Amino acid sequence: MQLDFFPSRTLTIYLAKMFVVRILAVLVMLVLVLLALDLLSATGKILAAPGNGQAEILQYAGLRLPQLVSRFLPYSVLLATLITLVTLNQNSEVVAMKAAGLSAHQVLSPLLLTAALVSLGSFAFNERVVTRANATLKAWESADYGPIPPAQTGGVRSSIYLTDGDNILTAATLTGTGESIVLTGVTWYARAPGGIIREQIRSARATYAGPGWRLENPVKFDVAGAITERPPAAVVGETLTPDRIMLQSIDPDAQSFWELSHSIDTYAAAGRNTDEMRAKWWHRLSGPLSALLMPLLGSIAAFGLARSGQLFVRAIIGMALGFAYFVVDNAALAMGSFGGYPPLLAAWAPFVLFLLLGETVLIRTEE
Fold first, then answer.
1. Pick the residue with more confidence: 271 or 293?
2. I need a surface site. Which of 13, 64, 236, 322 has the fewest CB within 10 A?
């Protein structure tokens, strides 16, 4: 058995090129199908906003495309791994490589190298493109696909939910920073002890009144008397300072890796719970690396005689291992987000577990 991990430059390029073509083909197929299905459900909502037309539908597709690419790239690597290895096995190319003295790891090495490059590209794509698309799309959805408030220094944040004792303040979007914060689509819920809503106040826009937030042209509804009023102005949430609002309105999915690091430090300094943010911070690293696992988990489809009738079973086992990883990874991340697991364990335990599982299966069956 040769000791060089990449024993042949020609073979490495041949396998890597075959793998890359299949990754791209599977990714394009998955993204186009899922984007078409997503547009079927979202087009009616987009066109319901006054003035929207084909341009807005294309804009929505452009914002959803990076999200779909990021989410389904690891699945594409898994399916491409199975297609590539099954093809090599059926054509007896794996038999020829092993007859030439290559080990199972050497056969997989070009695929592992390609998957590592895909992981690196996925991390860069997530940081530069996906986070911005997430922020823009969430703000647009919060505005019911209408005009998004112009981004100020702090950008646009969406789906704001704040508590002021028993009371609740919600807003569709937030723009600006400090005392220049502007909230749109605002609703104030005044609640009695025990959580019973006493009154509800709606307003299209709110600004900082120092203290409190001034609601413009509010509409007040008294629950007990079922009476609707239109007072000239209203100030609510006097304990909600701009700094507190900025802390509570952070969206980890819309922040880059380094921005999220700063947000975690800010939360920790304020004495806030950071488990959910730390779990997502660690997953920014372990998530893209899932592509590196796919050739290893799908490698069982490469070996064994194609004429034995077990090739299809091997491919199913490889697919099951790959999809089991995604299920365990999502479950661990959810557990880490609400404190069930430590954030580091929630993000990395599935990766390490399936790395060891894939190596064990490969070594015991082929090495």
1. 293
2. 13
